[in-house]
Amino acid sequence: MSFPLLETDNLSIAFGGIKAVDSVSLTVQPGKIHSIIGPNGAGKTTLFNLISGLYQPSSGRVKLGGEDVTGLPPEQLARRGLSRSFQNLQIFFRMSACDNVMVGRHRHEKTSMLGHLFALPSVRAENARSRDLAMGLLERVGLAGVANKEAGSLSYGALKRLEIARALATEPRILLLDEPAAGCNAIETEEIDRVIHDVAKSGIAVLLVEHDMRLVMRISDHVLVLERGKSLVSGTPETVRNDPRVITAYLGTFGTEEANRA
Amino acid sequence: MPELLQFAFSGLTVGAVYALVALGFTLIYNASDVVNFAQGEFVMLGGMVTVFLHLAGVPLPIAAALAIFATVLVGLALYAFAIDPARGSSAVTVIIITIGASIFLRGVAQVIFDKRFHALPHWFGSEPIRFGGAAILPQSLVVLAGAAIIVALIFVIIDRTILGRAILATAANRLAARLVGIPVRKIVALSFALSAAIGAVAGILVTPITLTSYDVGTLLALKGFAAAMLGGMGSAVGAVVGGILLGLAESFGAGLISSKYKDAIAFLIILATLFLRPQGLFGKKSVERV
Amino acid sequence: MARLASSRWSIVLGLAIVIAALPFLFPSNYYFRVAAIVNIFALAVVGLNLLMGYAGQVSLGHAGFMGIGAYSVAIGSAHFKLHGLLAMLIGAALAGLVAFLVGRPILRLKGHYLAVATLGFGLLISMALANEAAWTGGPDGMGVPRLEILGYRLRGPDTWYYISGGALLIGVILALNLIESPTGRAMRAIHDSEIASRVAGIDVAAYKLRIFVLSAIYASVAGSLMAFLNGHITPDGTAGFLRSVELVTMVVLGGMGSVVGAIVGAAVLVILPQALTIFHDYEHLMLGLIIMVSMILLPRGIVPSLLARLRGGGA
């Protein structure tokens, strides 16, 4: 068993007295896919917002690579190798697809504004390098053909993959994906499935929130079931699938939802 | 001691005017999210139109009534020709439009009237009343009473009438208001008319004391905004309290510290509010959702 | 990449040609003067457009920085006998420093609040300039000693037309460079989604502050040039609220996020009132009308609207 890359210890947050996330502890290993499932309103996205520094926890700790990063802002976490996508898309709509991914290179680029103002040769070389890397990532998620199109003109499924490419451009050690397959058709889902696999294989830890149960059960190494902010069951996909508590408490509501969707 | 009392009274008088401007701001802001920088021009128009009709021989009460009517028309025109056509524009664009309207109205006043200062006669003479060593102009009491009556009227309208319900519903959620059949655009137009009327009355009440000219509007608008912000944008009670507090702060600041930078106090208050309590004294805190 | 680079140099080249060719059409010195004013405003607006059009942060107090630049030159040469150019550099540094100090708290604000806070800041500057008469000559303003370089006194509007044109050209090149750099991408990213920017590792507050400082320096240099050109400055004329409104209008009128638009916006808003104002008394009326009409009819700005039409009327 390798050293955990991400650890949360009894992480909690309350909004107006309601505990949206209640004492959740989890560990994610490098190169492994760790999924979080649960009915709507179970606190999955809130947990993501806590881990990625958008919300401050009421109590509990977050450790990244052994370092206590509780309460650090997202830009600091990005520099420590944490990146994420968003359930309701946070795209730079007025920039080209390629520029969107290039923004992800930001933490690896020199930030001297004077150099940028005078377009020094080193800045131009760096620009070209970032562009090449961004094009490579776009290729990897199947968007090379629309690299120069304005992001606002792309389809929903394409934007979902664009977010993943941008997150990968930061060269993260851990990647948080919030419903990457939501709203995507079967082919796009397949493609996202493949990308997530590749990412994990390259040694990046993946934390995944996803409604598509087949996708989750197929690719996860570990599954955590959240209900009303609390962790209900956690284990391998088989354990979770066969746990009676999950079937009654969780699939009861969520299963019908899944059935309706199919 | 008498000095402090004097500061308090002049602060209350000016504060009452700021409160009315802030209340006008709030009415429009609630109905339409528009920050109307031309609010001060309503005050200017109320005073200037009354002055010039009076000079032309119209009896004062009739001149005042006509001035309010004219200002309401201007308010409606502002909505119909400048704000309504720009529906869906960004907040910055709309702010610039109202600033443009304010400059335009000032330019019109400069052409129609003139660039001099004008006064109106005091309603009950200009002999100050002595009170605890301070001298109070009877007109100050008129301003305070007038402001109190207007504020009371507005609160009754909002709290007790169907119209008030419609305004509140529009303020809370424009789309939902439209869906339940509230004529949202009429309500917004009405908020412009109402707030123009309030501004005009404020101008008429205060002109005998502070005088008026074509360019008094800009500073009044900014101070009204400062007051509204201090009280909490969107809160009518906050607008009134914020106005009074701002008036007092200015009066004491000018008296005790420096009158040269009297006008700076409003902006220091804006900045202090923004940093210490951005939701204002009576505003609600909003949570950003991701 | 090649396409972008070539469009960048075609903008610069086009602008250089226009600046060099226009004087052949000028029948009198008056035209040089108006054109120099256009150049100067355009320089300030190119800077403000970086802040508003690219980084998405409004400033209704930017004339305050023009005032700092103008009065640095005037006070520096009149009271401290500094060389005009040195005074201009000091002014730019001072404007940058002031922007750095006020920007940190102010730029945390958004929307209406940011607009009003910057507006208040601008008013404080013009108020200070009007009140500290011992240094500034008060509301009536003060004279600016002529700039002298190598014993040659720079006076005529034609001289200042070429100098301001050169300054504008440099300002445009630097702005275009910045837009195509990591800083430029960070700015545009912040405009579209602050949250995604932060997750990508961008220190949003630091970038807003940097751009605010840069745009203040642009405005300050423009203010210094204005002081040299006019030879006399007033608080209202350089730092007043109306000036700030004009600068913002120029940005929006020309087109947010368009460097060419910034120049077009400045040209239109300087020239139109000159052409339409028969009597001085109608100045405010016309300015207000132009601002309202252009915001209502061209909310996206002249240049982006034209480009959209040229490309076949896409939305």
What does this 3D model show about the protein?
The complex is a heterotrimer of chains A (262), B (290) and C (315). Chain A has 262 residues and is of the alpha/beta class. Chain A contains ten helices and ten strands. Chain A has helices at 44-51, 74-79, 97-104, 113-117, 121-140, 156-169, 186-201, 213-219, 237-242, 244-261; strands at residues 6-15, 18-28, 33-37, 59-64, 67-68, 82-84, 174-178, 205-209, 222-227, 230-235. In chain A, the strands form two sheets. In chain A, strands 6-7-8-3-9-10 form a six-stranded mixed β-sheet, with helices on both faces. In chain A, strands 2-1-4-5 form a four-stranded antiparallel β-sheet, with helices on one face. The mean pLDDT of chain A is 89. Chain B is 72% helix and 2% strand. Chain B has a two-stranded antiparallel sheet with strand order 1-2. In chain B, helix 1 runs parallel beside helix 5 and helix 5 (138-160) packs across helix 6. The longest helix of chain C is centred in the C-terminal third of the chain and has 27 residues, at 204-230. The radius of gyration of chain C is 19 Å and the shape is globular. Residues 1-5 of chain C have low confidence and may be disordered. Chains in contact: A-B, A-C, B-C. Chains B and C meet through helix 4, helix 9 and helix 11 of B and helix 5, helix 12 and helix 14 of C.
Spell the H/E element sequence of chain B: HHHHEEHHHHHHH
Indicate how many domains the architecture of chain B comprises: 1
Task: Give the C-alpha Rg of chain A.
Answer: 19 Å
Reading side by side through the largest sheet of chain B, how are the strands ordered?
Answer: 1-2
Level-2 CATH architecture of the largest domain in chain A: 3-Layer(aba) Sandwich
Oligomer: heterotrimer
User: Are there runs of chain A of 5+ residues with pLDDT below 50, and where?
Assistant: none
Strand content of chain B: under 5%
Structural class label of chain B: mainly alpha
CATH fold descriptor of the largest domain in chain A: Rossmann fold
Cα shape of chain A: globular
What count of structural domains of chain A? Answer: 2
Tally of separate helices of chain B: 11
For the termini of chain A, the CA-CA separation is 38 Å
Mean pLDDT of chain B, rounded to whole units? 89
